[in-house]
Amino acid sequence: MNGPKVIILAELIVDLGFLDEVKAAAKKSVALALQEPGIELFKLTYNPMYPNCLYFFEVYTSKAAHDAHLQTPHAQEFFAFSKGKMLNPSKLTHLSEF
Fold first, then answer.
1. Which fold has domain 1-61?
2. What's the pLDDT score for residue 1?
């Protein structure tokens, strides 16, 4: 067994001037991420009251799967593309199953 699942809720608050660009890049990155082994779920959502507040809900089968995802070209491209387009640093919440 590879250890416990890795479950992450990532909150990104995007500068409204870049919202459409960031959402398009996020959709592209998530579509590629869903093809990776070890990803059980990868959802993009937003807060309807604050449409520039995006949430990525991610479930990986293991830490190794999460680490591998972070090194993929599409993840690295999204990180580089979104740099400077956020109002705050991304907030990552690590969750656990019960």
1. Alpha-Beta Plaits (3.30.70)
2. 47
Q: Which pair of structure tokens corresponds to residue 23?
A: 């959402």
- Confidence (pTM): 0.90
Give the pLDDT of residue 70: 96
Spatial distance between the Cα atoms of 93 and 91, rounded to a whole number of angstroms: 7
Residue with tokens 């398009």: 24
Provide the residue ranges of all domains of the chain, joining segments of one domain with +.
1-61
**Spatial contact of 38 and 6, defined as CB atoms under 8 Å apart:** no
Is residue 60 within 8 Å of 40, Cβ to Cβ? yes
Give kind and range of the element (H or E) at residue 94. strand 91-95
Within 10 angstroms of residue 64's Cβ, the number of other Cβ atoms is 13
